[in-house]
Automatic annotation (TrEMBL):
One of its GO terms (molecular function) is magnesium ion binding. InterPro entries: CorA_cytoplasmic_dom, CorA_TM1_TM2, MgTranspt_CorA/ZnTranspt_ZntB. Keywords: Cell membrane, Coiled coil, Membrane, Transmembrane, Transmembrane helix, Transport. One of its GO terms (cellular component) is plasma membrane. Residues 149-176 form a coiled coil. It is a multi-pass membrane protein. The chain crosses the membrane at residues 267-285, 297-317. Belongs to the CorA metal ion transporter (MIT) (TC 1.A.35) family. The keyword Transmembrane helix applies. This is Magnesium transporter.
Length: 323
């Protein structure tokens, strides 16, 4: 069931009226209408398309999923696609909810693919800035874009916190490398999904601010510029996070390689020390006469040689930091 609202001169005049009455409300030039659909059918959109004269390609895009964030221009209206994102710190995953919008001179029609997009929070944002409602569709579109971009900013910040924790854990001695690798790859995957929603918004908002589209008036232009600035900062932040997580990954592999080299160096050093008694006892184990053969002096001589050489190698390796 569609949700409707009509504004007259910046004040809510009516809510919950049928979609078929939209054209009646728009007969008054001082009225702006908002219509919201959640999981609409082709018949639902066909009705509003007839009311507002929406282009068939735009209606087709609204019915399909996984569109790229964009703002398409048609003769009588514009078509917007954007994504609300949420980062879940518990599992490091990013969830997205698509919203489409038909933007006409005196109507905004939002189309949500499911309940994942919290339209009530957008409505609350509209009601919290009622002093701007006289700007009509520009005011409604600003509230929608502002909520989406703020969500992007919060998701990027939460992901940044997770990557910083990963960066700190890299230098922990008790780190489990298997778990850390899975965690870093999961964050990298989440960052990729987040970038697909965040980066295009800069172009989308820039397109909406174009004077030839006549969507944004002079009153709302500073507010759209502020949203554009936030979108640009979120996009730049995601780029820096991409470089940071790559650096963390390279550092992790480098430290792991260094630790492996240290282990191999210590094992090799101990093997060299252990080789001394093996060599000495092997020499004295020859079945031939030698000084100290079958005598106590031979035992003490071989023992002294083993101890002196082993201790000597031990201190040499310690001095070179091989042990």
């Amino acid at each position: 069931m569609a949700r409707t609202r009509a504004y007259r001169n910046g004040t809510v005049e009516a809510e919950g009226f049928p979609v078929k009455d939209v054209s009646d409300w728009l007969g008054d030039p001082g009225v702006v209408v908002w219509v919201d659909f959640c999981r609409p059918t082709a018949a639902d959109l066909a009705e509003i398309a007839d009311e507002l004269g929406l282009h068939a390609l735009a209606v087709e895009d609204a019915l399909e999923e996984h569109q790229r964030p964009k703002l398409d221009r048609y003769e009588s209206h514009s078509f917007l696609t954007a994504y609300c994102v949420n980062f879940h710190a518990e599992d490091g995953e990013v969830s997205k909810a698509e919203v489409d919008a038909f933007v006409t001179p005196n109507a905004l029609v939002t189309v949500r693919k499911d309940e994942g997009f919290p339209i009530d929070e957008v409505v609350a944002r509209w009601d919290g800035a009622a002093d701007l409602a006289k700007s009509g569709v520009a005011y409604l579109l600003h509230g929608l874009l502002d909520y989406i971009v703020d969500g992007h900013f919060e998701a990027v910040q939460a992901l940044d916190d997770q990557i910083e924790r990963l960066e700190d854990d890299v230098f922990e001695e008790s780190t489990q490398y298997g778990a850390m690798q899975r965690r870093s790859l999961r964050l990298r995957k989440s960052l990729t999904a987040l970038r697909r929603a965040v980066l295009p918004m800069n172009e989308v908002i820039s397109a909406a601010m174009r004077h030839d589209l006549r969507i944004v008036d002079d009153v709302m232009m500073p507010y759209f510029q502020d949203v554009h600035d936030h979108a640009l900062r979120a996009a730049e932040w995601t780029d820096s996070l991409r470089e940071l997580i790559n650096t963390v990954r390279e550092t992790q592999l480098s430290l792991q390689g260094n630790r492996m080299n240290m282990i191999m160096k210590k094992v090799t050093s101990w093997a060299a020390i252990i080789a001394i008694p093996t060599a000495v006892t092997g020499f004295y184990g020859q079945n031939v006469p030698y000084p100290g053969f079958q005598a106590a002096s031979g035992f003490w001589t071989s023992t002294a040689v083993i101890v002196v050489l082993a201790v000597g190698l031990y201190f040499v390796f310690r001095k070179r930091d091989w042990l």
